[in-house]
Amino acid sequence: MRQSGTTYYYRDYTDDFVESACQNKTLPENYRWIHRNFFYRLISVVLYCVILVFALIYDTFVLHIRVENRKSFKCARKTGCFLYGNHTQPMGDVFGPALYCFPMRMSAVASPSNLGIPLIGKLLPMLGGLFIPDSLGQMKKFMEAVQYHVEKKRCIVIYPEAHVWPWCTFIRPFQATAFRFPVRYNVPAYCMTTTYQRRKHGRKPKIVVYIDGPFFAEPGKNKREQQMELHDRIYACMKSRSQTGTCEYIRYLRETDS
User: Fold this and answer.
1) How far is it, in rounded angstroms, from Cα 169 to Cα 243?
2) Handedness of CA 118, 122, 125, 126 (dihedral sign)
3) Which helix (H) or strand (E) holds 43?
4) How confident is the model at residue 41 (pLDDT cuts 50, 70, 90)?
5) Which of 39, 99, 173, 185 is the most buried (most CB within 10 A)?
6) How far is it, in rounded angstroms, from Cα 96 to Cα 64?
């Protein structure tokens, strides 16, 4: 694997290397996840179309992304699905999945800190942002919103690593908590693994995104066992895909390893 010479040091997998202007932002108690107003929804559709065009240009000419096996989403168009990915591109991870799962519409589970992103942050709720609640009192409304998007047969994106590590080439350990959703709503799960490949020209690597799935919960097991089994299969798949990378633009080392 070719290495660029840039090294980041971390103490724990929860370290942040990309911070927004409002890193500690919380949601107000009266925050609304579902908007049924006609004009709000109309503006949402228009903005989403604009973002699709922007994502196509950005992914093609800036990030040089190639997507493998996007056709596997075809069988999820009638049910909706959950899509799990490694979190390595601050901008690409926001917009890219909208292209990968098209013509399904994308929603994404995200931290409230993303609302602090300049310009785009305030538009994220209209684009399908499902912001994680800050209190147990808000959890019911959040779960109602997740169910709403499932019923709309959308692709709901989750980054279980939680923190963006730019250009990271390995899959960080993540908890099985987020895998309760496809079990609860009985819809397929997919994974997308962003890998970095050597380019003949240019300093930055090209990006290859692998789509794998569908993964279904194993019948005959209780919900917790199904959740763990989905986690294990998807983690193993993503880890295997990540090993196909051939370029390490930024290297990550534990401080004790230095």
Assistant:
1) 8
2) negative
3) helix 38-57
4) very high
5) 99
6) 11
pTM of the complete model: 0.93
Q: In what order do the strands lie in the sheet with 106-110?
A: 65-68, 206-215, 189-197, 81-85, 155-158, 106-110, 129-131
Whole-angstrom Cα distance, residue 221 to residue 236?
20
| pLDDT tens-place string over residues 197-213 | 998 877 789 999 999 99
The 8-class DSSP code of residue 221 comes to S
Report the alpha-carbon distance of residue 128 to residue 81 in Å, rounded: 14
Residues 6 or more apart in contact with residue 161 via CB below 8 angstroms: 13, 86, 87, 171, 172, 174
H or E stretch at 156? strand 155-158
Q: What value does the CA radius of gyration of the chain take, rounded to a whole number of Å?
A: 18
Q: How many CB atoms lie within 10 A of CB 133?
A: 20
pLDDT in tens, 150-191: 999 999 999 999 999 999 999 999 999 999 999 999 999 999
Other C-beta atoms closer than 10 Å to the C-beta of 47 total 15
**Per-residue tokens: 62:** 């800036």
Helix (H) / strand (E) element for 189: namely strand 189-197
